[in-house]
Specification:
mainly alpha; de novo design (two linked rop proteins); 79% helix
């Protein structure tokens, strides 16, 4: 199994998380304390759930955590939309974050599909293992 730090999807989630962190740090107290905290929590949750799922060593658990990460990505999009509407993000910041967010969504789905394929392959192997037959007297 690949370590979570080596997964492209995790590396991208971490990159987005760090971008958001440094942006929110410069906001005033009120913006940081409201939208900022929620945005940082949701974006940090993406990578955290990828890592946690990877550490479960169980395909079903891993899939569940990737689905949670996908939900956190949608929540992050929500907070980014509010930050844009409230003029907390500069055009340059939006142009830096948006392509990363747009890239992460299909990568999360592809990772989820790859885990599903591995789970299916493992299930087929288990079904093919013959059951032990009791010895026959000759």
């Amino acid at each position: 199994m690949v370590r979570f730090q080596e997964l492209q999807v995790y590396q991208l989630a971490e990159q987005i998380s760090n971008e958001v962190w440094f942006i929110v740090q410069s906001w005033d107290f009120f913006a940081k304390n409201t939208v900022g905290q929620q945005l940082v929590r949701s974006v940090d949750s993406i990578g955290a759930n990828i890592a946690e799922g990877n550490g479960r060593y169980n395909y079903n658990d891993n899939q569940r955590f990737i689905k949670i990460a996908r939900g956190s990505l949608h929540e992050t999009r929500h907070w980014l939309r509010l930050a844009c509407a409230r003029h907390l993000l500069t055009t340059e910041q939006i142009e830096r974050i948006k392509p990363l967010i747009d890239e992460l969504s299909p990568k999360l789905n592809a990772y989820l599909n790859s885990i599903q394929s591995k789970a299916n392959a493992q299930a087929l192997k288990i079904k093919k293992i013959p059951k032990n037959k009791p010895p026959t007297d000759s």
